[in-house]
């Protein structure tokens, strides 16, 4: 009987996952995307006409199986907090995530209920165990 991932036509468990096939440790910026972004920025903000891109970079987009970030203190490593899986939204939600991180590390009342960000939620996820991905 096929595994749930196979039934949903994601991939066969005896094959590399999409993440394994596409993982690049030092990705190069896509020049076409950089050019398009500059052009769109100049259209939206005419004051940027004549601006040039001097440097660009690329990075990972990390994600969790359910698409929600993990911000959680470790149950086994005292003082260790994991904040990951922001799926490219880290720049936008970074300040609020950092506030929650600070609250959890200092013992302050959290700015939001941290339950939804706990790592343990992935152990019971309908997506399967993280190790299966």
UniProtKB/TrEMBL annotation:
Transmembrane segments: none
Keyword Oxidoreductase applies: yes
Name used for this protein in its record: N-methyltryptophan oxidase
Domain FAD dependent oxidoreductase: 22-104
Example of a GO MF term: oxidoreductase activity
Keywords (A to Z) from UniProt: Oxidoreductase
